[in-house]
Write a structure and sequence with these properties.
heterodimer; A: 243 residues; mainly alpha; 10 helices; 2 strands; B: 287 residues; alpha/beta; Rossmann fold; 2 domains; 6-stranded mixed β-sheet; 4-stranded antiparallel β-sheet; binds adenosine-5'-triphosphate; binds magnesium ion
Chain lengths: 243, 287
């Protein structure tokens, strides 16, 4: 239960800063919904539905990614390099896997809350979406895997600026290209090929299919699960070898 | 002097740490007995922090070993972790938590059961005189309050050895004395203490033995009295217009004889640990 101690600390802080978190998590999805759902997408139809219904699962996916990655990545990187609070955990008799699990679950919670905020907003904008257990499971996996990526990045990147660069060069392009706002099959073949192997693409695909009332896509689910496990193990490994 | 146990609580053997071509700590051999307050002195960059970081398992030694209460710091991590409390050189409290929550996090990490944890937190906050600030965020604390809270945190799990890396740097004289009292009190209750400091009077007043490090090597070791004897218990300071000259003598008579021969201002006094330090590590400020 050591992971729960790590998780507990995150939740204490999360509760204390919830209002701020909530407000800040409203802004960018609201802008996306206004710009792409209402402004650009009005009257546009994608694969037989409205563009709003097409784009909301994509926005959920990208927000899950951004929120979870930043929640873990930025704070852990600061904690390691600047506040040095990571040492408190390294000195304590807890395992690296308990530490990583606690951090990743805390990042996942934040990502899930952010996703629910978007679904709430989308509902207010008049989107009709099916949100069932599978949908939530896919969101959970997406949050989990990007929180774990946050651990790997935070433990291996040695400056705050490079952490920001990682966001700009890796996370930001994924936000726009991974099937979030449009289908990647419109891209040049070589690019589309790369996009197909990225986890966010499968999050978008799976969420979109489910939101329309379709079945869960087994390949996408398997890809997300694979990334989640691999990145979690990578996170444990980099924490172990930090000494 | 109080009773010192015969147990060697810390045994350091040939401990070495290299960062690239920099040798931060070089073939360090040192034993610290149970119940001792031991100070590591040394100029900036001497390797004091690196030594503590190796003993507290925050960095791996390049070679050599260290045993804490018989457990190897390179292999028996979980056993060593329970024996040590650490107050690092930099402030590393969780600024997003209150004082109470900082201690609670520590207590949970060390698996102290809830009721016992509560009692321990109350007791320690009282011990470091922070009980009325318990529910305040640490980011609002002054430097001295943070330092005291860090000590309380390190004590939460009843460690056998406490490592304090420059525990009184940047504190006002009153707070510094409070921390000295705290260290003495913990020691009288049986805690072994290894601290580093740049305040030589701190080592002289507080510690049973001191080790002086320079450029990664231990260059002197003993009680403050022994070290003073080693360089000479009487100092003659002469001021010849530009620099002060220091000369050490074993007896007052020798010192007087020397002093009668020099021109200019002369001061004869007993040597202190600072003289030892300056004499052994060289007068230049080394970086
Ligand atoms: N992480 C690191 N990477 C590279 N070199 C390091 C690292 N940590 C310490 N050093 C080097 O090791 C040497 C000893 O440093 P250390 O911090 O142990 O000194 P110190 O005695 O604690 O000094 P101070 O009194 O200034 O705290 C220095 O030359 C320092 O530059
Ligand atoms: Mg130091």
């Amino acid at each position: 239960m050591d992971f729960y101690t790590v998780f507990w600390r995150e939740m204490v802080v999360f509760r204390r800063t919830f209002i701020k978190f909530f407000a800040s998590r409203l802004v960018s999805p609201l802008l996306y919904l206004v710009a792409f759902g209402w402004g650009l997408g009005r009257g546009l139809s994608m694969d037989g539905g409205s563009y709003l219904e097409f784009v909301v699962p994509g926005i959920v996916a990208l927000s899950a990614m951004n929120t979870s990655f930043n929640a873990v990545g930025v704070s852990l990187n600061m904690s390691r390099l600047y506040h040095k609070t990571l040492e408190e955990y390294l000195i304590a008799p807890i395992s690296a896997s308990a530490f990583v699990l606690g951090k990743v679950l805390a990042g996942t919670v934040r990502g899930l809350v952010a996703s629910l905020i978007i679904l709430g907003l989308a509902f207010l904008f008049g989107a009709h979406l099916v949100v069932n257990g599978w949908f939530l499971l896919v969101v959970f996996l997406t949050c989990f895997l990007f929180a774990a990526l946050g651990v790997v990045a935070a433990m291996t990147i040695n400056s705050h600026e490079d952490m920001a660069n990682f966001s700009t060069f890796v996370i930001l392009p994924m936000s726009f290209l991974c099937g979030t706002f449009f289908s990647p099959d419109r891209l040049p073949k070589a690019v589309a090929y790369i996009i197909e192997v990225l986890p966010l693409t499968h999050a978008s695909y799976a969420l979109r299919a489910l939101a329309r009332g379709g079945e869960v896509l087994p390949i996408s689910l398997a890809v997300l699960l694979g990334y989640a496990i691999a990145l979690f193990l990578a996170g444990v490994w980099v924490v172990k070898k930090v000494r | 002097m109080k009773f010192l146990g015969v147990n060697k609580l810390i045994e350091i053997r040939q401990l070495t740490k290299q960062y690239g071509h920099i040798v931060a700590v070089s073939d360090l051999d040192l034993e610290i007995k149970e119940g001792e307050i031991f100070a590591l002195l040394g100029p900036n960059g001497a390797g004091k922090t690196t030594t503590i970081r190796m003993l507290t398992m925050l960095t791996k030694p390049t070679s050599g070993t260290a045993l804490i209460n018989g457990y190897d710091v390179t292999r028996e991590l979980d056993k060593v972790k329970k024996e040590i409390g650490v107050v690092p050189q930099h402030m590393n409290l969780d600024q997003e938590l209150t004082a109470w929550e900082n201690l609670e996090l520590h207590g949970r990490l060390y698996k102290i059961p809830a009721t016992e944890r509560r009692k321990r937190i109350e007791e320690l906050l009282q011990y470091v005189e922070l009980e009325d600030r318990a529910r305040e965020l640490v980011s609002r604390f002054s430097g001295g309050m943070k330092r005291r809270l860090m000590i309380a945190r390190a004590l939460m799990h009843w460690p056998k050895v406490l490592f304090l890396d420059e525990p009184t740097v940047g504190l006002d004289p009153q707070t510094r004395r409070k921390i000295w009292d705290l260290i003495r009190r913990m020691n009288s209750e049986g805690m072994t203490v290894l601290l580093t400091t740049h305040y030589i009077e701190e080592a002289e007043i507080l510690c049973h033995r001191v080790g002086i490090m320079d450029k990664g090597k231990l260059i002197a070791l003993g009680t403050p009295g022994e070290l003073k004897k080693r360089v000479g218990e009487v100092v003659v300071e002469t001021f010849g217009g530009k620099d002060t000259g220091y000369k050490f003598f074993a007896t007052r008579e020798e010192a007087l004889a020397y002093a009668s021969q020099v021109d200019g201002d002369v001061l004869i006094r007993e040597s202190n640990l600072e003289d030892v330090f300056v004499e052994l590590t060289g007068r230049k400020v080394v970086d």
